[in-house]
Specification:
By secondary structure, this protein is mainly α. Helix content is 67%, strand content 0%. The longest helix has 36 residues, at 159-194. It starts with 9 loop residues before the first helix and ends with a helix. The mean pLDDT is 87.
Length: 198
């Protein structure tokens, strides 16, 4: 489900962690204070919102949310801390060496955006994730039924790849139809030729 040990409640955990950071070192911490807070966190746990099971770079969803925040809430204190974390945390995690992806994921940012826009009930954050995931699954189901494919992975096809595949299938269908029409015409002609003349 969306609340298990490997997935659930991640953006809530990030928001709680950032809130504790603010309580301990204030709303306008220095990079050095954040670095020390991160190092203290790493002594007993992980820094929530960083790393991804598949990606090996900054999560593009994080990047999209960051660009949105830069445009719409650049002076929000929580966003400023998220921005500092983006700058401070990856080098620390990279220096540890055991972490394959020290970059932020979507959860590093989403909770702060939801809070800014008035969504204070953290229990609903996972619901929003589930709804968006359901829409993605529905879209994938339509594609898989249309193309007669099994479950697809993110690396399976780009939109360009899907369009090329559709064009290839349309061409094959047109060639098959043309061959069938040609065969039917040949059979009709052969039947007419075999018909006794009166």
């Amino acid at each position: 489900g969306l609340a298990g040990p490997l997935h659930g409640l991640a953006n809530q955990e990030v928001l709680i962690w950032i809130t504790k950071l603010v309580e301990k070192i204030g709303k306008t911490p220095t990079d050095e204070q954040i670095k020390q807070y991160v190092l203290d966190t790493l002594k007993t746990s992980v820094v929530p919102g960083f790393g991804h099971a598949v990606l090996r770079k900054t999560d593009p969803r994080y990047t999209c949310q960051r660009e949105f925040a830069l445009k719409h809430l650049p002076n929000d204190s929580m966003f400023k801390i998220v921005s500092q974390l983006y700058k401070v945390v990856p080098p620390i995690l990279g220096d540890i060496g055991k972490i394959r992806n020290p970059w932020p994921n979507v959860d590093a940012h989403s909770g702060v955006l939801l809070q800014f826009y008035g969504m204070k009930e953290m229990n609903f954050y996972t619901v929003l994730f589930g709804v968006s995931r359901a829409l993605g699954v529905l879209a994938q189901m339509i594609w898989s039924r249309a193309l007669e494919f099994p479950l697809e992975r993110p690396k399976s096809f780009s939109t360009d790849g899907l369009m090329a595949l559709i064009a290839k299938q349309e061409k094959a269908a047109a060639e098959k139809k043309a061959a069938a029409e040609k065969k039917a015409a040949a059979e009709k002609k052969a039947a007419a030729d075999d018909k006794p003349k009166a």
